[in-house]
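Report of the visiting student (M.T.), summer placement. My assignment was to run the structure pipeline on a short list of targets and document each run. The first record concerns Icc protein.
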Amino acid sequence: MSQAFVLAQISDSHLFAQRSGCHHQANVYENLTAVLLAIKNQPVIDAIVFTGDLTQDHSDASYQLFVQAFTESKINLPVYFLAGNHDEPELLERYLSKAPFRKEKLIERGQWQLLLLATKSATPAGVFAQSQVEFADSVINPNKFQLVLMHHHAVDAGYFIDRHGLENPLEFQQFLSAHPSIQAVACGHIHQGLTLPITLPKRSVNLYTCPATSIQFDRQADGVKNNGQPPGFRLFTLADCGQITTTVCYVEV
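After the run finished, the structure tokens were exported:
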């Protein structure tokens, strides 16, 4: 009997150069380390995927601090990563270059393929580029199941962050329609743990969003506001039959 693949998704750490840096009254380094320790204490985790927005102040030191958080937490699971709209892909590649970090954008385990697709653009909004379509088309095995992970959300969440969502959602929907073996999509960016349906002509695919390790957005505000929820992460259990079980976890700091 095959063992299910268990994935922890983290997102939106928004670190500063200093450990004492606060984002809307939250010490984001302490929040990140609390989440990492909670993940480490889970009974079974096979991998971690970080879905972007590592930095808030765009400093090299913030990337180094991200690595330090994993070192201090003694995380030895493979950690895969994507760039968010705040990040520079070159700095991610430079600083997240040694274990436990892995630069691959395709993870294969049992009957599952996990695709990490880049959506960073020149603006805070996201773009699903043709290069990502070509990459996905080249690796997707229609006889397996896929979970797509990205930074930006591909369907409206119903609050201010929609101004910075995916700019070409129709192209993304066409991509999903062309690959019926894709079971679900996961993203960061919106600082909430929601389940949002993406309605396609012949089926619906769930978009699972990830709570941030930094702050959770107040969905009633017309801009960035901390709603006071603790930092969090999302767990996925991917069974070989194609079933997805997912839980949003919050961590008291």
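Residues 28-40 form the longest helix (13 residues). The CA atoms of residues 112 and 145 lie 5 Å apart. I thank the supervising group for their guidance throughout the placement.
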